[in-house]
Protein 1
Amino acid sequence: MKTKPQWIDQADAALQRAAKRAHELAATTGTPLHVMREGKLVKLMPSKATKR
């Protein structure tokens, strides 16, 4: 079995950090956050109390 390169894990971690930061920024500024859920584009209005 082939092991996956380390950069794949690093890229995944970077994407997770970016998503968390985008959610925090949307909550702070009161702007919508657009995400893909089950293959559909969904508009969310995050609140300051919401955590991911």
Protein 2
Amino acid sequence: MEYLADTVTVIRHFSETGTIGKRAFEVINGIERGEHHCYVSTISLVEILYLSEKRRIDISLEKTLEKNKGLRKLFGYKFNGSNR
């Protein structure tokens, strides 16, 4: 199944702070097992950048992407309609 991750879930998952809902946790586990595919919208990436620049979250966009070098494995994302 395909999912679109919301910004809060992405931030909490990669910064390892706060909690996410039970269903979101189950979906992320399914993604890690290869059962699902999840996308992160461009607006979520921009929101992470904005929130980190305003120091409202403890993880930067760079760290978010770096923490999961396999972003395509866990969270697939598309730019201009194609995976890179």
Protein 3
Amino acid sequence: MTVVKRSIEEAEEADLREWKSMTPAERLDLVQHLRDLYYEFKNEDRKGFQRVYRIVKQQ
């Protein structure tokens, strides 16, 4: 394993380059993985995206 020290700006740029190099499917997999970690940390049991809606009055 290689460790590279970077400034915060360089790290953010590297993160953005990596994100842009991923396919949409890889991005969704990563987001789902992060959601799973979050819910595990918060001791919540949720699967899939939460449904959200609102009613907008048309003029």
